[in-house]
Design brief:
This protein has 138 residues and is of the alpha/beta class. It is 36% helix and 20% strand. Strands 3-2-1-4-5-6 form a six-stranded parallel beta sheet, sandwiched between helices.
Length: 138
């Protein structure tokens, strides 16, 4: 079992399988999604359910996010009870297809807090997420 706790926000079609791979590899993973069923499914596999993105980022220094739109990414990261308000977060890795404009805005907003932003979209679809064969573009 890994000693480092990893946070994951957005555990739907892509994030769920990616998070599952982390669990299968023995990592302790704290998860949040607006879909309680998605949280429960991963909790049944050993994930720790959080109550908000902020709660995830208060339990993990590295938080991965996989969300459907740039607007949702910005809200989840920078909004009230967002990832950026967590007490432990040091690095946020965005696996979504956020785009350069939104990624730059988020990185600039995070700058004064010292939280690092990594724009790392993935390619390979749901099958790649399940199989562990995604290409990560950093």
């Amino acid at each position: 079992m890994s000693s480092e706790t990893v946070g994951f926000v957005g555990i739907g079609r892509m994030g769920g399988p990616m998070c599952g791979r982390l669990l299968d590899a023995g990592h302790r993973v704290v998860v949040f999604d607006v879909d309680a069923g998605a949280r429960a499914a991963l909790a049944a596999r050993g994930a720790v359910e959080a109550t908000s993105p902020e709660d995830v980022a208060s339990q993990a220094s590295v938080v991965l996010i996989s969300l459907p739109t740039p607007a949702i990414v910005e809200t989840v990261v920078l909004g009230p009870r967002g990832v950026s308000t967590g007490s432990r977060v040091k690095v946020i890795i965005d696996l979504s297809t956020t785009g350069p404009s939104a990624a730059a805005r988020i990185a600039a907003a995070l700058g004064p807090s010292g939280v690092a932003w990594v724009d790392a979209p993935v390619s390979g679809g749901v099958k790649g997420a399940r199989d562990g064969t995604l290409a990560v573009m950093v």
